[in-house]
Amino acid sequence: MWSYILKRVLLMIPTLLGVLTITFAVIQFVPGGPVEQAAYELKKGQAEGHAPFGLRAHTGVDAQQIAQLKALYGFDKPPLERYWLMLSRFARFDLGQSYFRHQSVWSLIVSKLPVSISIGLWTFFLTYLISVPLGIAKAVRNGSPFDISSSVVVLVGYAIPGFVLGVLLLVLFGGGSFLQLFPLRGLTSDNFAQLSLAGKIVDYLWHITLPITASVVGSFAVVTMLTKNAFLDEIHKQYVLTARAKGLSERRVLWKHVFRNAMLPLIVGFPAAFIGAFFTGSLLIETLFSLDGLGLLSYESVVRRDYPVVLGTLYLFTLIGLATKLISDLCYVWVDPRIQFEQLER
After folding, report:
1. SS3 for 91?
2. pTM across the whole model
3. Residue 132 · residue 264 · CB < 8 Å
4. Of 310, 298, 327, which Cα lies nearest the Cα of 4?
5. Rounded CA gap, 214 and 157, in Å?
6. Domains and CATH numbers, the chain
7. How confident is the prediction for the chain on average, in pLDDT?
8. Is the separation of the CB atoms in 5 and 326 below 8 Å?
């Protein structure tokens, strides 16, 4: 086991380097970089009578000011030197400083996590708490009116994009053309600090109802159908027929024999789904409901060419993704002893 884990950890290094190298190389050829955007802001500020970035104000942006901007953002160094500096910082888990927000990338990520955690964790738990029992019920009643009607409902929900459903919910329940039952923005009210504990819980749940509904409805279909198909596949295997022939009750056959084997695909996906919940960022949902999370941060960083935020978050999320994939493989072996690490290496 330890040799397999060591091999996987060592393989993470070239994968991580490849992702960072390609992204860094692409960045070098993208027009409208931070220096150009800062020069535009400087020129605009000079026209309005003030100069940002602490630079001297006069008409136009001369070569000296451009050189100052390049030095400010580190673009006065050759690309290869900047690349090695970036790797040395990342090796120390120093993600750098944002060009435009004047904060460390770590502090930016931490400040945006509450929104993304709220959306991600609620989506994760509600999806599995509803979809797994529903998938089992559909497998047991395969072909029945309940199975057909529930399939239609979850597939319709899957077909509707989350932001379209969000707009519909706002129109119906957010003070649009009909009812105003839920707030339009934020995770909490302005007077949240003055509320009692019960009041804070109610206020929080009141605010997240619409965005969570818009996010979770489209997730039901995949988990539900995966659960149903996994159970159907196990129900028709020989060991189930043998258990029934021995006189075991249908309930005992289902929960003691079928359940464990059928849940393998879902259990293996738990680590990735759970860890991913902490870094879930839905740009459209966050924009629609005025939630300042990681999705909006990533989009704004790309648009403004805030390269430390782009590369820092890419490094962190890629590292977490690789580690989560390893944990998923380990969970597979832990849940099913028939799987050996030698088989995973092939």
Report:
1. helix
2. 0.73
3. no
4. 327
5. 10
6. 8-91 (no CATH), 105-344 (1.10.3720.10)
7. 79
8. yes
